[in-house]
Design brief:
The protein is α/β, with parallel strands linked by helices and about 375 residues long. It has two domains: about 30-110, no CATH class; about 175-375, no CATH class. It contains 16 helices and eight strands. It has helices spanning about 35-45, 50-60, 95-100, 105-110, 130-135, 175-185, 195-205, 220-235, 235-240, 245-255, 260-280, 280-295, 305-330, 335-350, 355-365, 370-375; strands at about 5-10, 35, 60, 75, 110-115, 120-125, 145-150, 155-160. Strands 7-1-6-5-8 form a five-stranded mixed beta sheet, covered by helices on one side. Helix 11 packs across helix 12 (about 280-295).
């Protein structure tokens, strides 16, 4: 691995440690697990008799591999969805018997995210990890971005962009570092409410918004209809293997019956809005981390407003689920926010088509404008 002298790290991620078997949503359960080529061959040559007997039964060559450093091979997940190398205490046998260095690049890295921007490494954490979310939300102070010495450890580069490359000559991607820094600055402006900051962010991206009004319905009715479509397109009960997410989706659907505007409005106005105002830092941290990690505003493509649209939609969808919890419990706590960030990130990031399909639907309905954003955020 090439050793670089410096790496940029958000302050919340500096001292992250995996909690292993204590994790309530283990990354070793329910997910496909990839093995890089070097580790795959190491497994085939191991001399540990116990683990050697298990490898032929549970690892296989991935014929659809896209990278030798990521998914050259795979672990065959059992019907229980547990990794076959996970013991009854949810601890990894490979780690225990062969050592940490014997973990694949994926297992060693997750939930750590490594990006390279203009030749410089950046590091953050995926919010699909419960402990990563707790670290993110544990400090009320704004996230700081700190340069540190980079340790020579296994890693996977999630994305690499050189904005000076001739490929980006006529693209707004050339301005990525400046746009991202400005976006984080806007989101961390605590003189404004979270919704106001998001509207300010949209204005800064200079999207032409001169269109006819997109809805004559109340904002609450419009939101209910939009989120009903989003939930249905996720295929929660048919395609998503997350009992927690399915449970909370049922709670939301039953609580509002997805057409009871009065119930939804009351939950938002009496519980959600006051909670968000009092705990704005929770959502600030979530948004700032997303902007940093996803190379915002080019998170999806070279269209700045597309990245902005989906940032707002993800935030608003989390708030919608929080309204469902508020309608049932008549209150919200910080743990509710942490759980919703974690399960939404896990489900949406691993759903193959949801985000792209939702973006296409927004554009088909000509909702890609600030009027739509205002209706979601009001």
């Amino acid at each position: 691995m090439k050793k670089l002298s410096k790496i940029l790290i958000p302050s919340y991620a500096e001292d992250f440690i995996c909690i292993g078997g204590e994790c309530e949503d283990s990354c070793c359960i329910g997910w496909d697990i990839d093995i890089d080529k070097k580790t795959f061959r190491k497994y085939c040559r191991t001399k540990d008799t116990h683990i050697k007997e298990k490898f032929p039964k549970h690892i296989y060559r991935n014929k659809e591999s896209y990278s030798n450093d990521v998914d050259y091979g795979r672990i065959a997940i059992e019907s229980s969805r547990w990794c076959p190398f996970l013991d009854e205490d949810k601890l990894c046998e490979i780690y225990r018997m062969l050592g940490e260095d014997s973990l694949s690049n994926v297992c060693y890295s997750f939930p750590r995210v490594y990006n390279i921007l203009n030749g410089n490494y950046e590091y953050s954490l995926y919010m699909s990890c419960p402990e990563a979310v707790r670290k993110l939300l544990s400090d009320k102070n704004p996230i700081k971005f700190i340069q540190r010495d980079m340790l020579p450890v296994k890693h996977i580069v999630n994305g690499s962009i050189d904005t000076g490359d001739k490929y980006w000559k006529n693209s707004p991607v050339r301005k990525l570092p400046e746009l991202r820094s400005l976006s984080i600055e806007i989101i961390q402006n605590r003189s404004r409410g979270i919704n106001e900051r998001l509207l300010d962010l949209g204005s800064s991206l200079e999207k032409n918004t001169h269109r006819e009004a997109i809805s004559t319905k109340s904002k609450y009715t419009f939101q209910l209809e939009f989120f009903r479509y989003a939930i249905e397109s996720l295929g929660v009960f048919d395609e998503i293997e997350s009992p927690v997410f399915a449970c909370y989706t049922s709670l939301v659907m039953e609580g509002f019956e997805l057409d009871k505007t009065a119930v939804y409005k009351e939950a938002v106005e009496t519980v959600v809005k006051p909670f968000v105002e009092e705990n704005a830092y929770l959502f600030e941290h979530y948004l700032a981390n997303s902007i940093f990690q996803d190379n915002f505003p080019f998170s999806e493509n070279q269209d700045m407003f597309d990245g902005y649209l989906l940032l707002v939609v993800r935030y608003a969808l989390i708030k919608f689920y929080l309204a469902g919890i508020a309608a049932k419990n008549r209150k919200l706590i910080i743990d509710d926010v942490a759980l919703m960030i974690q399960v939404h990130t896990k489900i949406i990031n691993h759903h193959k088509t949801f985000i792209l399909n939702l973006l296409q639907e927004i554009k088909r309905k000509e909702f890609d404008n600030m009027e739509f954003i205002s209706l979601l955020l009001e």
